[in-house]
What does this fold into?
Amino acid sequence: MNIKNRKLLTLPEQIVEQIKESIVTENLKKGDKLPSEQELANLFQVSRPTIRDAIKLLSASKLIYTKPGAKGGHYITEISPQSFIDDFSNYISLSLVLKGFSFDELIEYRRIIEIKTCALAALRRTKEDLIEIKKMVPNPGDPLSDFEYFECDFQFHRAIAKATHNSLIIITMEAIINVLKPMFQFVSGTKALKEELSNELNEIYRVIEQGDPDLAEEKMNDHLSHFEKDFSVKGNRKVSS
It folds into this structure.
């Protein structure tokens, strides 16, 4: 007999799940005020300390925020894309520090995301998207510092993600870039390397402009492979630009 041991939810966790369900079904919307602790206790037929524990869990999950004072209370939070980006970036950074996963796993994950993102951008880009992508291609002759030069590259990848018009892809890429970018503060680039970078980004832009998803995947794969091979940050860990 195959019996799975499923974790039983505590009373506060059960209350949290019911409130989450109300948010998902839009019975509770952003800015709505929750009933008082006593009203919630009566509703769920539990003690006020149990409600307080549920409130703590909701606050920790950033599903509610609390206004102090006589006219205050607990309100449903507006979940913004930036809050998700910040949380995801922090999770990745902490996981790398605490060895929750390896740096190589992050690079592998980024490669999977970026290659498919480039293909989707080739299919969905607008004229406005193409203008933004082209603007981010650095010119080797520009008087840019190394960090400014690599910042152009990060902005280029952001612009490609935005060209997919897929909110989840945009958020994911933003979080990954937030983690990788600080690692390039002390990375130097030769003139030859900058020329290679510009050429690669121009080629990626060209195939996105042509609307060729297969070739877009190929060019992005080549670009990421180049930087995984040539760039090393903090010892022997390889990173892409």
Summary: The longest helix spans residues 103-124.
